[in-house]
Write a structure and sequence with these properties.
about 15% strand; membrane; Butyryl-CoA Dehydrogenase, subunit A, domain 3; LHPL2 protein
């Protein structure tokens, strides 16, 4: 018989697992890892925007692991569009070998985190498989995912010396040196998600303790199928 067991600690672990997986996935897909040098977007000679309000704010293009955002001027219209998308159509076109390694490690970590997030939803009904606690297994997987994420984040700055990064960050950019660039929100989100990944791995033990406590066993012996405990 399936017993639905919900505790504050198990629910918090489930929610954190889902949040971490989404945060890492969004950061990986974003182009806001590096914020490039400011490019003036004022009117040029013959640009009709000079007749429609004067110079605009300087635009800072962004560069991700495999994507980028830049601004395209429309000479025939008084507007400028920001275009975001992948600059690499294949894995081999990613700008740096270090970034290719980063993409592999982050992708592996994110796949594990998404799998754990999916499984965590069902831990309310199923707490063990083959006499192994799902919480402990998921916590171990989250720890492994965290190691993959750390490797990816360590290798990422080594690729700042590639030609693509130099075109955004200036000639002084090199491995672990930003040059004229600054770090975008995606990089910090990936770091924060990595920290939360290890917190989830540790907290999974508390979720396991909460769902296997004596109070839960008493509720089961009383014949209750839905057990909600603080």
């Amino acid at each position: 018989m399936c017993h639905v067991i919900v505790t504050c600690r198990s629910m918090l672990w489930t929610l954190l697992s889902i949040v971490v997986a989404f945060a890492e996935l969004i950061a990986f897909m974003s182009a806001d890892w590096l914020i490039g040098r400011a490019k003036p977007s004022g009117p040029e000679e013959g640009d009709s925007s000079s007749r429609a309000g004067g110079p605009q704010e300087p635009f800072r293009p962004t560069l991700g692991i495999y994507g980028r955002c830049t601004r395209i001027s429309h000479m025939q219209f008084s507007r400028r569009d920001t275009l975001c998308g992948p600059y690499a159509e294949t894995f081999g076109e990613i700008a740096s070998g270090f970034w290719q390694a980063t993409a592999i490690f982050l992708a592996m970590g994110i796949m594990i985190l998404c799998t754990v997030a999916f499984v965590s939803v069902f831990t309310m009904c199923v707490q063990s498989i083959m006499k192994k606690s799902i919480f402990n297994v998921c916590g171990l997987l989250q720890g492994i995912a965290g190691l993959f994420l750390i490797l990816g984040l360590i290798l990422y700055p080594a690729g700042w010396g590639c030609q693509k990064a130099i075109s955004y960050c200036g000639p002084y950019a090199s491995a672990y040196k930003l040059g004229d660039c600054s770090l975008g929100w995606a990089f910090y989100t990936a770091i924060g998600g990595t920290v939360l990944t290890f917190i989830c791995a540790v907290f999974s033990a508390q979720a396991e303790i909460a769902t296997s406590s004596d109070k839960v066993q008493e509720e089961i012996e009383e014949g209750k199928n839905l057990i909600c405990l603080l």
